[in-house]
Amino acid sequence: FAYYRFYLLKNMPVCLIRPLNKLKSIFNPNSCFIRSKYWNADLEYLKKFKGPVLYPNEVTSKWLPMVSDPTPPPVEKKLVNVIINFGPQHPAAHGVLRMLLELEGEIVLRADPHIGLLHRGTEKLIEYKTYNQALPYFDRLDYVSMMCNEQCYSLAVEKLLNIDVPLRAKYIRTLFAEITRLLNHMMAIGTHVLDIGAITPFFWLFEEREKLMEFYERVSGARMHAAYIRPGGVAQDLPIGILDDIYEFIKVFGTRLDEIEDMVTDSELWIERTRDIGIVTYDDAINYGFSGVMLRGSGIRWDLRKTQPYDAYHLVDFDVPIGTKGDCYDRYLCRMEEMRQSIRIIEQCL
């Protein structure tokens, strides 16, 4: 006990001096604590910052962050939209183009198209060809509407040379132009439905396309690049029995279209993914130079088969369907109705 008493008496001045010096430095205005880098705020100052301030008023909006907190406020991060590559290697764009798309959710804010991936230099290639030698190059321009490209080229050559095509050849051209239209629209609708997630209509439509490809093969020997429509008419007359087979096809094809419409047209998922999507207004369709279904889907009744008839189109009767909103759903309906009108034209040609 005597030892501990001696130790406390000896060291008490040191134990008391250190706290007293700290208190003195706190209340001394010239203390190094005030002049140092960090300032310890008093309790009255800290009371103002108790509790969250959800809605600043005139007073609280002037409050600054605590000086004693050395951490800088977090930097506000800007929202960055998603940028994706559409193509050239993409299931819906197989090598024909590339687009850089800026997306906000499912809305495309900006598109940067890179075209020319399908360019073959056709104009240069046919400079040293005869009219018939140049014909096969036009099949490759649009490998979904092969004979229509041949027909366009042949009409241009016939206009330059003032060639009068026989009436039978005109009807054959018109017949296969509408078969090609069926091929085109079935490809467009089938792949569109497949991209949204339905695979059954895709198989049904491609089954019908194979039947039409057989008609291509029977008249030309090739399933796709036929080179059948040529300047002055067609390559050769129709083989025996093909007209009967075409009639049997169109007789049941209307029923298959009804089955497709029963599955797709009133589907809630299909309507949700196509209605009010990709709207092209009446004025935009004209100003952008659209044609075909893109133009008619926006409510413009413009069809070269009616406005500038060629081959035997002035001898057949058909209607031109148009849309009302100019969205994907209207363009789908236009294609479905145009296939029904193609059946009418084929029947009249037969």
3D structure, described in words:
This is Complex I-49kD. Belongs to the complex I 49 kDa subunit family. GO terms for molecular function: NAD binding; oxidoreductase activity, acting on NAD(P)H; quinone binding. The chain is mainly alpha-helical and 350 residues long. It is 51% helix and 8% strand. It has helices at residues 2-27, 32-35, 43-46, 122-125, 131-139, 146-161, 167-196, 200-220, 242-264, 268-274, 282-287, 293-296, 304-307, 328-349; strands at 82-86, 89-90, 93-94, 98-104, 107-114, 229-230, 233-234. The chain has a 3-stranded antiparallel sheet, with no helix packed on it. A two-stranded antiparallel sheet has the order 2-3. The longest helix is centred in the middle third of the chain and has 30 residues, at 167-196. It starts with a helix and ends with a helix. Mean pLDDT is 84; it is low at 30-35.
CATH structural fold name of the largest domain = Cytochrome-c3 Hydrogenase, chain B
User: How does the overall form come out from the CA principal axes?
Assistant: elongated
Q: Sketch the major β-sheet.
A: 3 strands, antiparallel
> Using only CA atoms, what is the Rg?
39 Å
Structural class: mainly alpha
Uncertain ranges: 30-35
